[in-house]
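Design request, tokens follow.
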């Protein structure tokens, strides 16, 4: 694993990363990491803000070697970095990647990392981790999913500074001698170029990207397919999971977890109801609180028991079903309304591809629905669309639960990691 990445019997010519400029080797990575370690030899707290995945990896290993605490921002926007700089000794925005004489390094020590998430208030929230926590999850990933990815490169549509991208896009391939692609492939042209490589890669993606790509590309005409596809950041819609089986017959491996928890469980939907349930990772223990919240015990989190704000129902076979976010249950007209349940019902209508429902408070409390329509949906009067969808929902929900305001968009607003952005959804309802 990564502690032994630079062991003496591993060739310095071993491929580590594939970049537009060419192959990056283990020796080049070792040299770049050593330079970062020398630059940060005083220790302290450093923000790791490298856009290039190879430079990010060199920075991560170099900062660990110099015993620094590593701050990983939620995004690389100037305002975010300026906010975190107040917490830090410095910002590492790039690491050496050119003109390096190959060199070897000893074992990478354990160290402290802080993933900073956007948080429910929009202010960055610190989530501390040990590097050993990440390596423990890497070992699990290889045990559970490694057989299908032997020797294949790893491509990704997700950022590497989030925990999902850091684990799946960087650390797992790094520890198991699979080269990773330094550039993301969320752009359709880049995605096609990635698949055209001699060895089709494993793909690390988000539900938003997997939903979007079939609308942007004729995937039926592709001559190559990813050898394995992973998805995380939210549940993948059953329709998208079914659609992707046309190109990846083994299905999409979905990973459930969070920055705080790390990976918790996985599933592979095949259209059968029993495959909607999640299988826990073998090192975790799960329970349900009185209000249905998932309670997690894991050797990869510092808390003895971590409460997740996801409601679950446990099955006798040890698997569980997700019922939605507890903090996405709102109260209108004295009625408790599950927004995920409403979204699922809307997506069950033949005209609706994706749906997001939010609570609006102006001019009075009500629900607003943002929709992505199916290609064949009628393009008539928006009032007729709203009336038809309200009638569809009225068969199952009380009047207080029916959205009063509606917006149709080409795609739902999501963050780089594929999560819906509530603030941008709300902006769609503001007066123009």
């Amino acid at each position: 694993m990564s502690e032994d990445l630079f062991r003496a019997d591993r060739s310095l010519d071993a491929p580590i990363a594939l970049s537009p400029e060419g192959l990056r080797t283990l020796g080049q990575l070792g040299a770049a990491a050593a330079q970062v370690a020398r630059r940060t030899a005083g220790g302290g707290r450093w923000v790791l803000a490298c856009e290039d995945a190879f430079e990010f990896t060199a920075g991560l290993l170099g900062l660990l070697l110099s015993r620094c605490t590593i701050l990983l921002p939620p995004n690389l926007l100037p305002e975010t970095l300026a906010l975190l700089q107040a917490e830090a000794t410095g910002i590492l925005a790039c690491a050496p990647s050119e003109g390096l004489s190959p060199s070897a390094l000893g074992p990478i020590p354990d160290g402290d990392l802080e993933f900073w998430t956007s948080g429910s208030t929009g202010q960055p929230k610190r989530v501390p981790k040990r590097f050993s926590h990440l390596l423990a999850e890497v070992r699990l990933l290889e045990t559970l999913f490694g057989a299908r990815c032997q020797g294949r490169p790893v491509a990704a549509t997700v950022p590497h500074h989030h925990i999902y991208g850091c684990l799946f896009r960087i650390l797992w391939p790094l520890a198991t001698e699979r080269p990773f692609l330094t550039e993301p492939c969320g752009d359709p042209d880049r995605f096609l170029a990635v698949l055209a490589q001699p060895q089709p890669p494993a793909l690390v993606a988000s539900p938003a990207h997997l939903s979007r790509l079939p609308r942007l590309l004729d995937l039926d005409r592709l001559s190559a397919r990813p050898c394995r596809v992973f998805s995380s950041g939210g549940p993948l819609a059953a329709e998208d999971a079914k659609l992707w089986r046309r190109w990846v017959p083994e299905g999409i491996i979905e990973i459930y977890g969070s920055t705080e928890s790390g990976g918790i469980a996985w599933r592979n939907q095949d259209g059968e109801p029993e495959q909607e349930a999640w299988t826990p990772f073998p090192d975790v223990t799960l329970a349900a609180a009185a209000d249905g919240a998932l309670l997690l015990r894991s050797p990869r989190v510092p808390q003895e028991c971590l409460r997740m704000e996801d409601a679950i129902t446990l099955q006798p076979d040890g698997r569980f079903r997700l019922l939605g976010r507890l903090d996405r249950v709102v109260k209108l007209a004295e009625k408790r309304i599950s927004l995920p349940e409403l979204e699922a019902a809307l997506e069950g209508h033949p005209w609706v591809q994706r749906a997001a429902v939010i609570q609006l408070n102006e001019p009075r409390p009500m629900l607003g629905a943002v929709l992505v329509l199916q290609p064949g949906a009628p393009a008539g009067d928006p009032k007729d669309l709203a009336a038809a969808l309200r009638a569809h929902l009225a068969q199952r929900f009380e009047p207080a639960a029916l959205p009063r305001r509606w917006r149709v968009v080409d795609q739902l607003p999501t963050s780089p990691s594929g999560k819906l952005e509530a603030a941008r959804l709300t902006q769609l309802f503001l007066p123009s």
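Comment from the thread starter after seeing the answer: thanks! The chain has two domains: 2-324, 333-427.
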